[in-house]
Amino acid sequence: MKGGVILFRGSGADARRYLESDRSRADDYYLEGGVALAEFAVMDGAGEVVGEGALTPDEYAAWVDWINPFTGESMGTPRKPGDGKRGSPRFAEMVVNAPKSLSIAAALHPEVSDALDAAQRDAVAEIRRWLGQHSVTRVGPRGRQEVVPVEQLETVAVVHKTSRAGDPHRHIHFQIGTRVWAAGAWRGLDTAALFKQQGALRALGTAVIAAHPGLAAVLDRHGLTLDPVTREVAELEPYNAVMSKRGEQVSRNLARFLAEWQERNPGREPGPVVTARLTAMAWDHQRPAKKPTTLGDEAGWRRELDDAGYTPNPPRQPRPAPVPLGDLRVQQVASRALNRCAAGASTWTRHTITEHVTRIITEAGVRATPAQLRDMVAVTTRLAAEDCLSVLPPGVVQPDHVAHLTSLHVVAVETRLRDALQARATTGASQPPDVSHLARTRGLDADQARAAAAVASDAPLVVVEGAAGAGKTTMLGAAIDAAATHGRTTRIVTPTKKAADVARRELGVPTDSVAKLVHEHGWRWNSDGVWTRLTAGDTDPDTGTVYTGPSTQAQLQPSERIVVDEAGMLDQDTALALLTVADETGATVALVGDRAQLPAVGRGGILDMATQVSVVVFDMTTVHRFADAAYADLTVQLRGGENPALLFDRLHALGLIRLHDTDEAVREHIATSARDGAAITAATNDEAQALNERIRAERVRRGQADDTRTTSGSDQLPFGAGDVIQTRRNDSQVQVANRQTWMVQHVGDDGTVWAKETGSGRKHRATVWLPPEYVAEHVHLAYASTAYGVQGATTSESHTVLSDALDAAGVYVGMTRGRTTNQLHIVAADLDDARDQFTLALERDRADRGLAAATRAANEAIAGLAAHGPVERVNAERARLAAQIKHAEQQTEQWERAATTLDRQRHDHDAEQQKHRTALTAAETHVEQMRTDIAHPLIEQATNDGTAYLASRSQLWEASATRRSARGLGKRGADRAVAAADEAHRTIETAALRRWGTLPQTSTGIDAWAEAVAGRQADSDPRISQAREQADRLRDEYQQLAGRQQRERAALQRKVYGKQRPTSAQAQAARWRARATGARQALTEIEATPVTEAARLLRERDLRQRAQEHAQERARQQREVVERPTPSPGHRPPPPARGL
Question: How much is the pTM?
Fold first, then answer.
């Protein structure tokens, strides 16, 4: 993601037009045609989406006008522009951009397109979540406001796949509503906090896309490599210029056709049909055979790329293996993030830590899901923040967006730096040399003469401040000559190599950047801003060679004067290194600069510290640069920044204020009216890039710049012969300096650029050859620049564009570049609005001026903020109740799960028991049935045998009785009868005994005997034995089952109830459900009560509770007194222990 947050202040209709103007009709998604809709989402304070849907064009416009699209409820009445005030900001916007080469890949491959869509959606989702968790608003009267988290935040995302010109440009307009719900009402989003969060938001969006596993996998399948640092597709990056150039051509054509249409149709706006026709004409103009059949389709873009030499399956670029997130050490990432924070500022916000943590993770080339990244960033940020110190006093509010964090390293470096400056300031020096003759011959004013004498002296520390155009260079030239007459040499060093080169040409003495000088003396620093120093014989980590000490040219002599020009831009680490080297060599130091101009890029405040410890500070306030003496005096007042409204009116009276309706109007005016060589200052790189694009288009139209043979630089804008470019990295081999400007002479087929130096004022300007690799990474158009690009320049005229991002230093620098005219351009409703914007700009001071200033700024930022106000109390109670509800619901769910588990176990046990019981019953029934079946015929046989036995016994008994009564011849017959009966009886008896084992005794017991003997015989049947064994086994299993189930019930009860006495789980669930209901009712009552009233009720409740607790404590103490045993008579307490 590139670019920052911008505030949109127009109406809903304006917003629709704005979105429409930023994409081509080739896009599948647009508002005016009603095909694709704005994706609307609502986040709660935890970052969770609590509502989402698609908005129609009318609903989107209503949302911009502060109408809730879901409920139709008004979220407030936006202020309209007028009466000297701008309209209310309706939303804040960030644009989630895909790099050009990635957009090209998506245009070429539908699968990449889908994967990029998913990655961008995930990036938006993570940004939304983060904003929901960290956005704040302010509640309460001025002087007693509270910073409170939002409870509801609304966002809109609109996806565009092309630029306005129709070339591939994947981007999402992510809009953050400025109306948020908090503390029971719709309130304004704290946009000041949002601006402090934008670095973290950009880093987060970039990280999600760069680490996205799905996107990486699809690119890999197509032989494409996404660089995690540049975010470009390495194999397609060479074609960025082709697409950008083609898009610029179409954009120029479209602008021309639109202007012509509006001239023919005054007062009308072109609708969708007309715009689509004009867009097609723009593509077709002068290239009828090259127009894609469908703008933005794969075949069309393939033809465009084919013309540029593209072939499918380009050679794969070397790619490092992706890094698993788990391979990163949290402590190491946290430490590196703090190093970067300390290198950038004296104090920082928690969001700054998040930004650096996220960037370090991205640079490592990780592959991770958004959730994994989110957790890693959160944990690492928390760890790093715990290692910070706060410059705010304890007990005060410490918002995350206020820069109040610092580190022991920052404190230590600044302490050493102040001590070094103090030591030099308090060391005596001889009388300054007399420079009166030089002053007369060179036309020095009094301020210049005094400053020159001081710089030429042998004072260990001299501090000179000079207004823009006060003649610091002239003064230094005189000081150098004066010092030379006393045998002292002078060396000029500057924070930038470009400034050093200018000083060398103008003063004719050894010059270099401060960084180069301290580097020669062994100082090294890495990309995280960590400084170390080599000693002779050490291995240089940058080159791998042995460091042997400073070169002859870099060796300092005792009493040599080191003059640091533009000293206000010197950062603390570099300054400490320089002072250390000066102390070691006996050199003296002069700091020359202007605190009203640009500060250090990093931890600064060197001039502030030096002026505080110095007895005398030489201030040059007579301005010589400007043709108009009145304007010269005005710039001195502008430097002081006092009474900005009056300054604005004076600038307006001089005709130097120009108002515009839109940003586009500003760019159009500057592009068509600014002279060649004018200094054009914008607040941000994005603003400068937009100006550069428009100015170049105008130069191409006039024939001043070639558009047939071009290449593009780091800004993705094409340039050719006749264009002005700027190099952005010192390179001794190429022989260019950072921020040096050049006029392009020729562009080679491979992208090599030949350029001639411009703006140096030298008669014989240098010519350089810039290799394509350097051009792609470190060159961009330079018609417009930020204030850092124009500081030190002097031109005939200047144009400065005022925006919310421009601060006092930027205004002052921009408005002091032109000798004859310096215009300030403002987009404003009227003069009063412009005056307010100007006043706000002069009140903005983003310079880092050391810990003392940072501490004051932090305290000013929280001035009027209440640390423990009513909203905090109500929110704490709401959080407590919400936590109580959550806990009660969790307990309810837990007990309901326990009851379900217990019921399920009971059911399972019953089913298992029933199964075993059924099997056992069946087995036992089987045994009985089988026994019956086997015993039945045996019983019948036994009955027969028993009956026969009893009958034979009766017959024997009867025969015996007959024999006893027989007489005579009848006795013999009776004997024979007895014998026959006995033999028959014995036969039957023997057979029955053999068969049954026993004999029946009586006829009445024969049935029982028969059943008994048959049963015994049946029981011995192997079939009965087997069946009984089966039944016995099932009976044992049933008993084991009962034991196991008893143990399982006990184990589950221990798991459910722990050490508590088992109770009814359903009853426990009901009790917790009731608690959740009660807490929810209490929360509903609080949310329905105004905040101040709710806070009062809570305070009264707290007082009652404390009184009750106090009464209970008194009662307990009284009980202890009553229950304390009375000592027996004569009892004495033991003597106190002796000794220490």
Answer: 0.78
